[in-house]
Amino acid sequence: MHGFLNINKPAGLTSHDVVHRVRKWTGVKHVGHGGTLDPAATGVLPLGLGHGTRLLEFLPNLKVYQAGIEFGVATDTYDAAGTMTSEKDPGYLTLEQVETALGRYVGKIAQQPPPYSALRFQGTRMYHLARRGVAVEAPPRPVRIDHITVTRWDPPVAWTVVQCGRGTYMRSLAHDIGRDLGCGAHLRDLVRLQDGEFRLEESIDLERLHEAVEAKDTASLLASLDAPVKGWPAIRLTGSEERDVLQGRTLCANERRITGEMVPQPVQRCRAHALNGGLIALLQRPSDDPCWHPFKVFPPD
C-alpha cells in the first residue's frame, strides 16, 4: 500500500499515536506523518504510507489553522492543558487592539518555540526537560505567517484563522500576543484546516479508516502517491525507459513529451510515470543538461 491518507486527528491522541494505529491496522511497515499536531489539537494530519513516506518532504509549505486565543490567563505550556502562570483581567482589550497586535506577526519572523515542545535540546526532547523542571530555552526559529484574520471576537477569546508555513507554533503565537497586550494569553483551541493540498472537509476520521481496513476497502480513501508533487511537470515512460529509470539510469527525452509547465530554475524537476500511470520516479536536471537524472525511485511491489 503506497500513497497518502488525509486523517482528521481527534483530540487526545499524539500524531505518533495515529501513526501507530494506522501501521497496526493496515499492516504497512512504513507510515509517517506530515507535521506534528499537539495532542489537544484536531484536524488535518497527512500520513504517508509505503513509498509515500519518502514524499512527505515535498508537501507544500502551507498550513491553515483555526485558533482560539484566550486572553487573561497564561500557562506554562502556552495552551489550555497547562498550569496557570499568570492571570489578569483582559476587560480593557478591544478588537482593534487585538487585530493590531496580531498584525505585527504577519511576515517572516523569528519565533521562540514553547518550552513544552518536541524539539530536542542537547539530545533530549524539550517537553521531557520541562516536565522535570529543567528550564531551557530553544533559540528562536525563522517562520512565515502569511495572514491572520479574526473571524469572531467573543471576549476574552479571539477566534482566528492563520495561514502560515511549516514549523510555526500556534501556542507561541498566542503566548506572545498575550505578553504584548499585557494580560497574558494561551491557545484555547486549535484545528488544522489545511496542510498543503489536504483539507479538513476531505479528511477521514480514524473510525471510518478502521472500518474500511476491516472491509478491505481502503483504495477509495488513499490519495495517489504523487499527491504532494501533482503540480510538477510529468512524463510518461516507455517500457524500456521504465526499466532504465528504475535502475537509476539517466533519461534523455524530447522535452515535448513533458506535460505541465516547466519552471525556469537552476535545477528542474518532474515526475516520471509508468505506462500504467503509476509514479515510478522523480527526476531532475540542471538547466544546461539535456538529460534527466532519477533522484527518488519507487519500484513496484
Would you kindly provide a written description of the structure presented here, covering whatever features stand out?
The strands form four sheets. Strands 1, 2, 3, 4, 7, 10, 11, 12 and 13 form a nine-stranded mixed β-sheet that branches. The chain has a four-stranded mixed β-sheet with strand order 14-15-16-17, with helices on one face. Strands 5-6 form a two-stranded antiparallel sheet. The protein has three domains: about 80 residues, Pseudouridine synthase (2-Layer Sandwich); about 130 residues, Pseudouridine synthase (2-Layer Sandwich); about 70 residues, Archaeosine Trna-guanine Transglycosylase, Chain: A, domain 4. The protein is about 20% helix and about 35% strand. β8 and β9 form a beta hairpin. The radius of gyration is 22 Å and the shape is elongated. By secondary structure, it is an alpha+beta fold. The longest helix is centred in the N-terminal third of the chain and has 12 residues. It has six helices and 17 strands. α1 runs parallel beside α5.
